[in-house]
Specification:
Layout: H1 2-17, E1 24-29, H2 35-51, E2 54-59, H3 64-76, E3 81-84, H4 93-101, E4 106-110, E5 123-126, H5 129-148, E6 153-159, H6 165-178, E7 184-191, H7 196-207, H8 210-214, E8 218-222, H9 225-237, H10 242-245, E9 246-252, H11 255-262, E10 268-271, H12 277-288, E11 296-298, E12 303-305, H13 309-317
Parallel strand pairs: 1-2, 1-3, 3-4, 4-5, 5-11, 6-7, 6-8, 8-9, 9-10
Antiparallel strand pairs: 10-12
The structure holds beta-D-fucofuranose (GYE).
Length: 320
């Protein structure tokens, strides 16, 4: 058994390095926590196949130590480029330095790291998470003005993974907008780890809190759609009509969110594009060809609400 595994490992390594002219990429995916992530994985895998790029893919199950182990193994296998969506934004300097010393370029795909030395990675491809938080805040302000003629309410926030760039920055962006409206306040804020199951759990606790009972205009802002969809389940199970008694905003733009909006159970989703495979491999090919690489490449994103979700749902289902 052990011998068999060793043979397999040796074969995988040969396949990774020996084909002349072929580009090998190691991608240390962070997990499979959301529909966004599943779409992102499909995009990274599908585009590699399309281009004949040799992809070594691993899934860290949302654990930083697993991601670090994968990066080390990619360095040892001598891949051309490493793709890394860091699960949290701190603690990366040692392993990024190892990659740099071994001459293996790292592209931060989707999430950023917190480091003062930005020579440790080649580039970041992904979203402007602060902008996404601001998009959510701006939509909410417009909605409140339109519905009630004033901007006030109590926000119950479902935070993403603690220490993850999209959680930190979406909160920051949202709060940037709220800062202008003293009567619009975050009254509860807890992590649901970007999953539907935890989003539901946190919402169940919120419903039992005194802040919930006291709230006049109940607003739920989730750092991703999956947590909001979990919250909708919790609300319905508690006999609360989500669409009528609350305002619910998510981020990502997954088709299930479009569907919930079309059904009148959710109100808005801010797009975060997971389909970055083509941009990612354009950059990989440019690196291998020795071209100059921009330090940041942002994806272009929109905001979708109940005016358009129903009409756009069939199109969205073809995407993610
Ligand atoms: O919004 C969330 C996922 O890093 C941008 O991770 C990504 C986020 C995305 O779990 O659904």
């Amino acid at each position: 058994m052990r011998k068999f595994a060793l043979v397999l490992a040796a074969f995988a390594m040969t396949a990774a390095v020996a084909v002349a002219g072929e580009i090998t990429v190691g991608f240390a995916q962070l997990g499979a926590e959301s529909m966004w992530r599943t779409a992102n994985t499909d995009s990274i895998k599908g585009e590699a196949e399309k281009r004949g790029i040799n992809l070594i893919f691993s899934d860290a199950q949302q654990k930083q130590e697993n991601q670090i182990r994968s990066v080390r193994s990619f360095i040892a296998q001598g891949v051309d480029v490493i793709g890394l969506p860091p699960v949290v934004n701190s603690g990366w300097e040692p392993v990024l330095r190892e990659a740099q010393e071994a001459g293996v370029p790292v592209i931060l795909a989707d999430r950023t790291v917190d480091t003062s030395d930005d020579s440790l990675y080649i580039s970041f491809i992904g979203s402007n998470f602060i902008q996404e938080g601001e998009n959510a805040g701006n939509w909410l302000v417009r909605e409140l003005k339109g519905r009630y003629g004033d901007v006030s309410g109590e926000v119950f926030e479902l935070v993403g993974t603690v220490g993850a760039a999209p959680a930190i920055d979406r909160k920051k962006g949202f709060e940037n907008i709220l800062a202008n409206y003293p009567d619009l306040k975050i009254v509860k804020s807890q992590s649901g780890d970007f999953t539907r199951a935890k989003g539901k759990e946190v919402m169940e606790a919120y419903i039992k809190s005194p802040e919930w009972t006291a709230a006049k205009r109940k607003i739920i802002f989730g750092h991703n759609d999956d947590m909001v969809l979990g919250a909708i389940q919790a609300l319905e199970e508690a006999g609360v009509n989500p669409g009528k008694e609350c305002i619910l905003i998510g981020v990502d733009g997954i088709a299930d969110a479009f569907e919930a909006i079309a059904q009148g159970k959710m109100h808005c989703t801010v797009e975060c594009n997971p389909l970055i495979g083509p941009q990612f491999y354009d950059m990989v090919e440019a690196i291998v060809a020795g071209k100059e690489i921009p330090k940041i490449v942002y994806s272009i994103e929109g905001t979708y609400d109940y005016y358009c979700a129903e009409a756009l749902l069939p199109w969205r289902r073809t995407l993610y």
